[in-house]
Each structure stands twice: as C-alpha cells, then as structure tokens.
Amino acid sequence: MPTPTEAAGTQPSPAASSSADTPVIEFVDVEKRFGDNVVLKDLNFQVARGERVTLIGPSGSGKTTILRLVMTLEELSGGYIYIDGQPLTHEQRGGKRVPVSKKQQKALRTRIGMVFQQFNLFPNMTVLENITEAPIHVLGQTKAQAVQKAHSLLEQVGLPDKADAHPTSLSGGQQQRVAIARALAMDPEILLLDEVTSALDPEVVGDVLNILREVADTTNVTMLIVTHEMGFARDVSHKVMMFDGGRVVEEGHPEQIFTNPSHERTKKFLGAVLGH
C-alpha cells in the first residue's frame, strides 16, 4: 500500500510535511522480525495531528515494538514509517528501499518523546540534569532556558523540591513523573507512552495517570499509547486499536470498543482485563 509520494520515488516536500492533512505518524506495510519470529507483518495505520491513539491487546502482540520502531530503538525489517510525511528510517529511491541519512533520522527523532515502563533515568545525574541534558545538547538550548523549563515542568508534575535529588532517592512514582517531565522538556510533537504505570505501586498509579490526562487536556501533542489501564485509555483516547498476533483486529472510538466491540478476540481480551 504505497503512498503517492512513495510511488513517485520521491521524498515529501517541506510544504507537504507541514500540511494539516498529513498524518503525523504513518505505517506503510511495516514488518518486524526477530529471527524467524514475525512480530509485525503488513501493518498499515495512520495517526493524525493531535490525535491520541491507544494500542491494546495481550502481551506479545507487538504493541511495544511499534513504539520502539517509531523511537528508532528497533530497526524495521520491511516497510516504511513516516513522520509528518517524511521517511523516518527508509525511503523509496530509484525503485529500491534504501536507508535515509542519519541526519534526517536524527532531525525527525527530536520531534518524538517517549516515557518508558522502567523510567530509564540517569542515576549519576540529578533530577534537574536528567531533564536539561537533551534540551541543551540536542536542541541547543542555553542552560538558563533549559533550567527554567525544567523547573516549570517539575512544578507541573508535582515535584518542585526534587531538582537536586538523584533518581535513586525517589520512589517509583516520583521517578516516572521525572521521566514524563524529561520527555516534555523536548517539546515533542509526538509522545510515546509504553506501559508507564505497570512498574508502579497501585496507590501511585492514579497520580501519574492524572498528570498524563492534564498533558492530554492542555496540549495538542500527538500520543501513541500502550497501556493495560483501560479506564485511562477510554478517557484520553480518540481511537483505540486492538492488536493480536502483530495485526490490528479491530479499531474504533473508545466508546464503541469498550462497550460494543465487534470482534470476538476483543470481547475475550476486554472480558479478561476488565473482569467481566
């Protein structure tokens, strides 16, 4: 299912990439294999600008792999991913699938932020240093700019007094809030959320989800979310996609997916997760 740009064997123009109609994320015939194990095959979907899309499904269905491909933490086995109409890792050139330049990949990567399941904070750095490191060295912000933004974000996530603390002195919930602040410090166009509450104690899950709800309510950031928190998915999503075996088995508005799913696999999964 090549895009018109792909069929022409050319790269989208800057004007095309800024069009409101251009998907912020587009998967075209994406395939991902780990050895002989095919995790994703012939995957095609789009995420519109400002849209919040949640991927649900059983463990091993390929959801986290999708996020890692967008983050370029995994390499595509086949197909194409476009960010704002620009090829992220591979493009069609002269009728062949070839890698894009590292410069282009890096430029697109700076538009994407990710919050991981396991926080991934630098233990040797303070909270403030964790948040300001990338804005200074990747975005080229001055230290004063980055520090001012970091303090504002720490206020937003409820940790204004933790700037000089090290991650090891923080609880899991506090570390995840720092990780959210770190991702937002890059002013991402796209925010990827990978099971951000699964490593947390139950009593702090609500605090972290409330921060993400606020981000959804107060910004136009595009979100691609993997979660087992079905209430959160229902609250913040514009669209929910049910995955099984590396394929989309059903997608639709949260109300439709959670109250009247049409696919038997979706019904079975939600019955197990929701307990009915």
From TrEMBL:
PROSITE patterns (UniProt xref): ABC_TRANSPORTER_1 (PS00211), ABC_TRANSPORTER_2 (PS50893)
Annotated membrane topology: Peripheral membrane protein
InterPro entries (alphabetical): AAA+_ATPase, ABC_ATPase_HisP-typ, ABC_transporter-like_ATP-bd, ABC_transporter-like_CS, Ectoine_EhuA, MetN_ABC_transporter-like, P-loop_NTPase
Annotated ranges, domain ABC transporter: 25-270
Keyword Transcription: no
Disordered: annotated segments: 1-20
Keyword line: Amino-acid transport, ATP-binding, Cell membrane, Membrane, Nucleotide-binding, Transport
Pfam families on file: ABC_tran
GO cellular component, one term: plasma membrane
Main localization (coarse): membrane
Protein's cellular compartments: Cell membrane
Keyword Transmembrane part of the UniProt annotation: no
GO molecular function, a single term: ATP hydrolysis activity
Family (UniProt): Belongs to the ABC transporter superfamily.
Identification of the protein by name: Ectoine/hydroxyectoine ABC transporter ATP-binding protein EhuA
Species, as recorded: Nesterenkonia alkaliphila
Gene: ehuA
